[in-house]
Every structure is written in C-alpha cells, then in structure tokens.
Design goal:
The chain is mainly α. It has a domain of 49 residues. 63% of the residues lie in helices and 0% in strands. It is built from 17 helices and no strands. It is elongated.
C-alpha cells in the first residue's frame, strides 16, 4: 500500500478510516499515529456501526465520504482519462466478487478508500505502464492487452514489476497466430472466434472500396453465424458527455459502497437519486426516469472491457491525427 494516502489524514480521520475499513488496523503508517486509547475508541465505534442495519451503514459511509464536488469538471477528461476511471472501478467491482479472501479484502478496502478520497484518478499511471509504447502506434489488440494488464496488475508498487506484467500480457494475451492474422482481402474463416469477438485478416493491397464492401458482408455473416445483434453503439463525440450527463462515475461509486457494506440491492432507485441528482439542481428534473432509462444502462455498459477498449482505440485515432 502507498503510505501517502494516510499521511495527510488527521487522527480523527484515521480513526474513522479504520472503523469503516478494518484491514487498515494493521497498516504501519496508521499504527504509528494511533495509541491504545485510539484503538479502543475504534473498537467501540465499530460495535456501534456493525449494529446498524445494512442500509443505515451504507448511508453513514456515503454521508462520510461521498461528495459530488470531488468530481470536479469532468468535461476536461480525455478518452484516456475516462478509460482510466472506468478501469479503476472495474478493478474494484472484480475485487468485490473475491472479498471473502483476506488478501483481496486488504486490496479491496484500500482501493475503495482511495477512490472515496479522490474519485478522479490520474491517467499518468496508465501511461507509465505502457511507457515503452506510443499510444498512437498501438493496435487495438495491444491496447486491449495493456488495459487488461493495468486492470489486473494496477496495485504493483514497482513500475518495473508492473511493466513486466504488461509485457507478459502483450506477449501471452494475443497469440502469434492472431498477430499474423491482424496484420494480413478479408478472411471469413471461423478460427479464433469467441462469442463476441471475431478475427479478420485484411490485405491492405486491396482497394478501399472492395475492402469496405467485403467487411460489411463479413460482419453480416459473422453475426448470423454467431447469433448476436449489435448491442453497443459506436463511440461518438458526445458519448463521454453522456457519461457526465447521466452521472455514471457517481452511480458506480455509490454502487461500490453499497456492495462493499451490504449488497447492491440495499438502496432503492430513489435512494441513489437523492445522492446523485440533488433536488436543488434544476437540471435534475425527472431524475427518476433518467436514472432508470439512462444512468443504470450507461453504467453497465461503461464497465465492460469492450467499451473501455473502444475509448482507448478512439484515443488512439485522435493521437494519430496529431
């Protein structure tokens, strides 16, 4: 764990942190600042907190740490920034599924606490893990590998260790056969297809008009064979605007808190709205309908690897134009 997360906290803040995140009691940075009386107080506070209902505990934690003002001006985030935010949430959501394991519990509690203190994560860390690569030169396959490795190994303290894992992902995640296919007119073969992802080899010596026509046919045939319909719309210029408008990050963070404390069913839709869409904001008129029809589906889509990869590939295109 990084010590700087706790260095700026006052003693009362550290006491609250250990109350809500018990694994912190063994952290050296915290133990050095608290005495026996402090830990006795923490024990009393934990007894009171644990005696509350699941909903009461969730609301107490939200009231303590969740603040809409912490998100700042989200319009300034690039697609890479958005991908980083969503990857961070995806990591935590995945860890929540493993929280019965003590090792993952420590990582989980630290990750949630860090997110609550500062919900907007810098994308610089993502860039460090791919520092040997210029994003404008990366293929979609490489972008996928790097984001997957960052998601899985983002807790490494050493940049060298983390980079080794990324390098391993780049070498192992996509086989040489797939790399060869990606770099080679369009082949309708079924080899290497997965339920939602298919591979096509493309001969760049063929004229664009023929390639476009063949690719349209390829997509149609593949979807018929696999039996799926297009679910997610393509990334558009205003897609990140939709993430802001429908408060996707804020919803995901509230959902993470509720799942950590009790379950994601603890709060009603109205409860979510009270925290995410304050009634004193005129833009939040009709918040319940907006929440059910837009916020929830946008949030479910936003944490899929497919959506994150498309954000990265769009960033890739923008970089190439610079």
């Amino acid at each position: 764990m990084k010590k700087d997360v706790f260095q700026e906290l006052s003693k009362p803040e550290l006491i609250d942190a250990v109350t809500y995140f018990p694994s912190f009691s063994d952290h050296e940075e915290i133990k050095s600042k608290l005495d026996t009386k402090d830990f006795a107080l923490i024990n009393d506070k934990q007894l009171i907190f644990n005696a509350l209902t699941g909903k009461e505990r969730v609301i107490e934690l939200i009231s303590k740490y969740f603040d809409l003002n912490k998100y700042g001006d989200l319009t300034r985030l690039t697609r890479l920034d958005w991908a980083t935010q969503l990857i961070e949430r995806k990591k935590i959501i995945d860890l929540l599924e493993k929280k019965n394991n003590s090792y993952f519990t420590n990582r989980l509690q630290y990750s949630i606490f860090k997110l609550l203190l500062s919900p907007i994560t810098s994308s610089n860390r993502f860039f460090l893990y791919s520092k040997a690569y210029n994003i404008s030169d990366l293929s979609i396959g490489e972008l996928h590998s790097i984001s997957k490795a960052y998601q899985e190994y983002g807790f490494f303290e050493s940049i060298d260790d983390a980079y080794k894992q990324v390098h391993h992902e780049l070498n192992e995640d996509i086989s040489q056969e797939v790399h060869d296919l990606i770099s080679e007119p369009i082949d309708l073969g079924g080899a290497l297809d997965t339920p939602n992802i298919v591979v096509a080899s493309i001969d760049l010596s063929v004229n664009d008009k023929q390639l476009v026509k063949e690719f349209e046919n390829f997509i149609k045939i593949k979807r018929e064979n696999i039996g799926i319909k297009p679910v997610f719309p393509p990334i558009k210029g205003n897609d990140t605007g939709a993430l802001i408008k429908h408060s996707v990050l804020q919803y995901l963070d509230i959902k993470i808190i509720t799942t950590y404390i009790s379950s994601d069913k603890t709060l009603t839709d109205s409860d979510f709205i009270n925290f995410i869409f304050p009634t004193d904001n005129p833009d939040n008129y009709g918040a319940l309908d907006k929440f059910r029809s837009s916020t929830k589906p946008h949030s479910e889509n936003a944490t899929t690897q497919e959506f994150i990869n498309r954000l990265l590939s769009e960033e890739n295109k923008i970089q190439n134009k610079l």
